[in-house]
Amino acid sequence: MRHRFPSTRALQAFEAASRHESFTRAAHELSLTQGAICRQIASLEQHVGVPLFERIRRGVRLTDAGERYARMVRGHLQAMERDTLAIMAHQAGGVLDLAVVPTFATRWLLPRLASLQVHAPGLQVNMVTRTTPFMFEETGFDAALYSGNPRWAGTEAYFLMHENPVPVCSPTLAATPLAPAAIARLPLLQQSTRPTAWREWFGSAGVMAPNDMAGMRLELFSMLAQAARDGLGVALIPAFLIRPELDSGQLIILNPHSSPDPRAFHLIVPERKVSQPSVVKFRQWLVDAAQHGAAVAEPAFSPRAVC
Q: Which of 144, 167, 180, 241 sits CB 3.0–4.6 Å from 207 for a disulfide?
């Protein structure tokens, strides 16, 4: 089957000329002559059957069709470059495209990632934030780090650690440890993705939750931590995500009680990628790191697969 693809040289010449709106500057960028750029553009215009540039007194200007085509061509060339770099990286040690929840990735995963190079030299981990479940078939992700219900269709889930959130605040808001009833009288920061967290915490502590918990609502643990540091209220946050703030005294734990929380961090892997070498290497390292360094004063857990 014969495809109607223009040459990549013509597309590169067009993309550069479209950015600069100048054949001369495009020629300089691509180390070609201006005549070569003109020939490539003319060839491309003949191929697509519409003018892409209009000649003006001081140079060239994209037509309406040229502007639309330039956006599409630029995206495809950038995608080709990413795909080529990814294939080249596979030769070195593999590539893993990972969807992550942001605070866990920033506060827990990234500080430990250097040790991955000892376990899997050359493995490159790319991360993009995703805070809600998605269909792996519709993305290029090899795996995901997620906290919540790990039962995604067509995946295997590997347990890492429970959240076990505790109430924390700035020492300017409350300077000493407090009983749950006293905490109920303070401003309570709410997490929009865990709207029942405070009611569950007070209930497990044997205290009636306050009727009015209309505090500031924030999405991410990192947002809660910042608001708590600024003295805006008390937040429920896993201690291992705010270890630097606790060690420095910017935040204090008001009460060590943590409600029995079913929420846990898992590595989610599509079934079709469970045996992919980069996934296997990363999973082995990650589960071991979670077992031996997940959080201070927390027991180690064994990974379990969930269908």
A: 180
